[in-house]
Design goal:
Length: 209
C-alpha cells in the first residue's frame, strides 16, 4: 500500500464503523456515527498542520500557545460528504467550505458534475476533499482534477470506506494526494457498490432509497 494511504487503526473508529455498517442503524444514528468518525479521521489527517506561535492571557499569567497557520478548505462532495463536513466545521470553525456537486451515473458509473461555485482564485493552503465512499474512485479523481485546475497545491482525501479499486485509481491518478480512510473493504460488486461496505451513504444519511 502506498505511503500516501492511511487506514485508521484507532479502536474508536473500528467500533463506530461496525455500527455504521449495520442495517439496524437508522438514519439518525447513522448521521451521528458519520459525524463522529469524520472528526476522528480529521484529527488523524491533520497531524501535520502548520502552526504559528500565539500568546494568550490566562487568569494568572500570559501563556505561550499556538494557532493553526494554514487556511484549510473543506470540499464536501454532495450529497454524502455533507455529514462529514458539518462534523469537521465543529472542531475547526475557521475552515472555508466549498461544495462540489458530483453524482455517479447509474449506468456508466462515471461522475457527473452538477455544482461548482469555487471562486476564481484558491483562497486556501490545504484542500480536504470529504466523501464517505471511494468506490471506483471516479468522483474523487474528478474532484481532485477540479481542485488542481483551480490551483490548489496541497490536497488530501478523507473518506470512510474504500474499495481497493478506488484507492488504486485515486493513487495512480493523483499520487501526491494523501488518502485517509476508516477501512478498505474487499471489492466492488457488479453495480459499483463497495462490499461489504454500508450500502448507499447518501440514502442512509438522508433516509432516501
Ligand atoms: C456516492 C459517494 C461518492 C461516489 C463514490 O455518491 O458519495 O460520491 O458515490 O463512487 P465512485 O468512487 O465510484 O465515484 P452518489 O453518486 O451515490 O451521489 P449521492 O451522494 O448524491 O447519493
Ligand atoms: N456510493 C455509495 O454510497 N456506496 C457504495 O458502496 C458505492 C458508492
Amino acid at each position: 500500500m502506498s505511503e500516501a494511504v492511511h487506514v485508521s487503526a484507532h479502536p474508536l473508529v473500528r467500533h463506530k464503523l461496525a455500527l455504521l455498517r449495520s442495517t439496524t442503524t437508522e438514519p439518525k444514528k447513522f448521521r451521528e456515527l458519520v459525524r463522529e468518525i469524520a472528526q476522528l479521521l480529521f484529527y488523524e489527517a491533520t497531524q501535520d498542520l502548520a502552526l504559528a506561535p500565539l500568546t494568550v492571557q490566562t487568569p494568572l499569567a500570559s501563556a505561550e500557545g499556538h494557532e493553526v497557520a494554514e487556511r484549510v478548505g473543506l470540499i464536501p462532495i454532495l450529497r454524502a460528504g455533507l455529514g462529514m463536513s458539518e462534523a469537521i466545521i465543529e472542531i475547526l470553525p475557521t475552515v472555508h467550505v466549498w461544495h462540489l456537486g458530483l453524482y455517479r451515473d447509474h449506468e456508466t458509473l462515471q461522475p457527473v458534475t452538477y455544482y461548482n461555485k469555487l471562486p476564481n482564485q484558491p483562497d486556501i493552503d490545504l484542500s480536504l476533499v470529504v466523501d464517505p465512499m471511494l468506490a471506483t474512485g471516479g468522483s474523487a479523481i474528478a474532484a481532485v482534477d477540479i481542485l488542481k485546475r483551480w490551483g490548489s497545491k496541497r490536497i488530501k482525501f478523507l473518506g470512510l470506506i474504500a474499495a481497493p479499486e478506488g484507492v488504486q485509481a485515486l493513487s495512480t491518478a493523483h499520487p501526491d494526494v494523501a488518502i485517509h480512510l476508516a477501512a478498505i473493504d474487499t471489492h466492488l460488486n457488479e453495480l459499483g457498490y463497495i462490499v461489504p461496505g454500508l450500502g448507499d451513504a447518501g440514502d442512509r444519511q438522508f433516509g432516501t432509497g
